[in-house]
Amino acid sequence: IRDETPKEIAATPTPGPKDGVSQESTDGRPRGGGVEMGGMGGGGVAAPISLRTLRNLNTFASFKNPVFLLYYGAVGGQMAAMNMEMLARSLLIYRMTGSGTVLGLMALANSIPMLFFSLFGGVLADRVQKKYVLFAGMVGSAAITFGIALTLVLGYVSEESSGSWWVLIVAALVKGTLQGIMMPSRQAIIPEIVGQEQLMNAVALGNLEMNLNRLMMPAVSGLVVELWGFEAAYFAMTAMYLMAAAFAFLMPRTGTMSLRGRGALADIKEGLVYVRHEPTLLIILLVTFVVVLLSM
């Protein structure tokens, strides 16, 4: 009886699913072979994401703004140079002195002005065009970095000249002052560039750039120092600061500024009083202060 089964019936293929919908068996479960729409179920293959879909994503929406691109280039150049310098400067002064105390003193000289002068930087950001504050700070940083590079080339500052470490301390002090003055303008200019609609996206992209620089540029700095010396690292940082200044110079003027006021100290006092009566802001500032203090 087994051998009498007609070959036509044995060779007949099982009907497959039509139009991408899997058939169901007698027990209600879907059979294999069909393509599930909108997913990977049933052994099917999901439809690829089209280029049009990628273009419609809002992840990089702020990059459509040409002014934000200039800002991004300016801040990126500054952050790249600053993170390179953090490693190069620390390594150089430690090799010069072999003292952890001097290394800590240099970090303190860089951090304290950044903390206190940011208050005056906020007042300045309300009264002067922010692009000018950024441009001046970047040019000043480039000049200081170039001066350190020249002292390295001339041999006044070197790993063998342990008595010249004070030059790096003074440079760190001035750099911290400039960064403190620039910081409020760098942050407050973002909503003036992109508006409230894309503010969160622009801030997120800025944080991405900042963290990538923190991750990559110290390694780049160490590689440059190892291959070509501290002089090459400082000349590279000078070029980055100048590139950042060029981007800042090309930015148009944004927002408004107020030349009238009761004075810088009165404005700082008013801001501190406001923060004291806003518990949420106060907690955020205290937590940020502790994190920055311990991480710098």
Describe this structure in words.
Helix 3 packs antiparallel against helix 8 and helix 4 crosses helix 9. This protein is an all-alpha fold. Helices cover 70% and strands 0% of the residues.
SSE topology sketch:
Layout: H1 7-11, H2 51-55, H3 66-97, H4 100-127, H5 130-154, H6 165-194, H7 199-228, H8 230-250, H9 264-276, H10 279-295
Radius of gyration: 30 Å
Distinct helical segment count: 10
Q: In percent terms, what proportion of residues is strand?
A: under 5%
| Strand segment count | 0
SSE run: HHHHHHHHHH
Distance between the termini: 88 Å
What's the pLDDT, averaged over the residues?
Answer: 82
Largest sheet: none
Low-confidence stretches: 4-12, 14-26, 28-42
Structural class: mainly alpha
Report helical residue fraction.
55-70%
Outline, from the CA principal axes?
A: globular
Keywords:
296 residues; mainly alpha; 70% helix; globular
Summary, kept brief:
The chain contains ten helices and no strands.
